[in-house]
Design goal:
Blueprint (H helix, E strand, L loop, with lengths): L1 E5 L3 H12 L1 H8 L5 E6 L13 E2 L2 H5 L4 E6 L7 H10 L3 E4 L2 H17 L4 E2 L11 H7 L5 E7 L2 H13 L3 H10 L8 H4 L2 H15 L9 E2 L7 H8 L3 E13 L2 E12 L11 E8 L3 E8 L3 H17 L20 H4 L4 E6 L2 H7 L4 E3 L9 E4 L5 H7 L4 E8 L3
Parallel strand pairs: 1-2, 1-4, 2-3, 4-5, 5-6, 8-10, 10-16
Antiparallel strand pairs: 7-9, 7-11, 9-10, 11-12, 13-15, 13-16, 14-15
The chain binds L-homoserine (HSE).
The site of L-homoserine has 9 residues, from helix 7.
Length: 405
């Protein structure tokens, strides 16, 4: 079956490599037919690349070639990936993608276009890189009401936090190391400020509960505010700080979804997820907790998921898989700050007695070198709005959610 790859960066070149190095096994899995690379779309020149005869700068070569049945989009960003994907789907060509930004913002429109073209739009690689999570959520957990999801969805921030926790490295030094290792971009904002994790939360929430959740509906906080002092206090109670994407079912018409640093106690499956690894814990009412773990980024892990989607499309070339979600609603994602109760870690310039007069029951934490005017404590369960009201006159240094996953 003839295929095309759009975008020849890290993921696109990985897709080409996996298709070539796994030719026989892929053919067996499709049922005899192999995936034949026909075009690589990229505006850049790759004169020394062994596939130089496959390159095109003209998208219409792919769109107008009736033999191309499956296209992998690994361009990233919304434009022109959205326009290209729309045209391909409407023309009846299946498209698979690793592009989380596009699926989070335009997934509903693209799924509708796939329906119109009687074809498939698949995006296993958009969340968790090589970790199987989209198909398990949509298919294997179909007999559950999903109660919640908590995920370490960004490898760069998990790498930075791991260095802070295990090597006492400052945030700035760990970020520089992540950049030197090629994990973080030169402009690390999307990773560090939680936007990448937010997009993945949108995709998981849309899939879990059937209504499109958009990035602007998900309250998002990154890790740039986390200090080694916080890491130290939290380690004294056998906990670690992770950047978590959390989704909670409230009722038929409401969910909560947010991205933020969170205290995870050792013993949770999420606590032991180190370095650039990702993990997604899904809580179903029949199955209980299931955890999906693996490499959430990188050339071959991400290509592994993209190629799996291509194989699936090749096997279903004349059939549409019933897969996706419906329209979103403005008030569907609630303000979690007034709705969801949880314990909080607080670090503040206060005395223990001042804390005790405000809170009935807290657990005080300590650290080496703790200044006499600094306290850190874990509260009882309450909403964030209630916590902020209690702390309105305090000099707060940091607040971190404590998770029950
Ligand atoms: N920059 C992302 C990460 C890549 O660090 O996880 C995968 O989305």
């Amino acid at each position: 079956m003839k295929i095309a790859v759009m975008g020849y960066g890290t993921v696109g070149s990985g897709v080409v490599e996996v298709i070539e190095t796994h030719r026989d096994v892929i053919a067996k899995r499709i049922g005899g037919e192999s995936l034949e690379l026909q075009y690589i779309l990229d505006l850049r020149d790759f004169p020394d690349d062994p596939h130089s005869d496959k390159f095109t700068k003209d998208f219409n070569d792919i769109l107008n070639d009736p033999e191309i049945k499956v296209v992998a989009e690994a361009m990233g960003g919304v434009n022109p990936a959205f326009d290209f994907t729309m045209k391909l789907l409407k023309a009846g060509k299946a498209v698979v993608t690793s592009n989380k930004e596009l699926v989070a913002q335009k997934g509903l429109e693209l799924l509708k276009a796939a329906e119109e073209g009687n074809t498939n739009y698949l995006f296993e690689a958009s969340v968790g890189g090589g970790i199987p999570i989209i198909r398990p959520m949509a298919q294997c957990l179909a007999g559950n009401n999903i109660e919640g999801v908590a995920g370490i969805l960004n490898g760069t921030t998990n790498f930075i936090l791991t260095k802070m926790i295990e090597e006492d490295m400052s945030f700035e030094t760990a970020l520089k190391l992540a950049q030197d290792n090629g994990y973080a971009e030169k402009d690390p904002t999307a990773d560090v400020e939680g936007h990448d994790a937010c997009r993945k939360v949108c995709i998981l929430a849309s899939l879990a509960f059937g209504k499109h959740v958009y990035p602007n509906q998900v309250a998002t906080e990154g890790i740039s505010n986390i200090s080694l002092e916080d890491v130290s206090y939290i380690s004294s109670v056998n906990g670690v700080i992770k950047l978590l994407g959390q989704i909670k079912y409230i009722d038929e018409n409401r969910i909560a979804a947010f991205v933020s640093p969170a205290v995870v106690y050792n013993g949770s499956q999420l606590a032991s997820v180190r370095d650039v690894f990702n993990a997604i814990l899904v809580r179903g009412d029949a199955v209980g907790d299931v955890c999906f773990y693996g490499r959430g980024a990188g050339k071959l892990p991400t290509a592994s998921a993209v190629v799996a989607d291509m194989v699936d499309c090749a096997k279903h070339v004349d059939r549409r898989k019933i897969f996706g979600w419906g329209e979103g609603e403005e008030d569907y994602v609630v303000d979690y700050k007034s709705t969801i109760e949880m314990p909080f870690y607080v670090r503040a310039k206060m005395s223990e007695n001042q804390v005790k007069t405000i809170f009935h029951n807290v657990k005080f934490l300590s650290r080496k070198g703790q200044p006499s005017d600094e306290v850190a404590f874990i509260t009882d369960c309450m909403t964030e709005n209630k916590l902020m009201k209690k702390l309105e006159n305090a000099e707060v240094l940091n607040i971190i959610k404590v998770t029950n996953y």
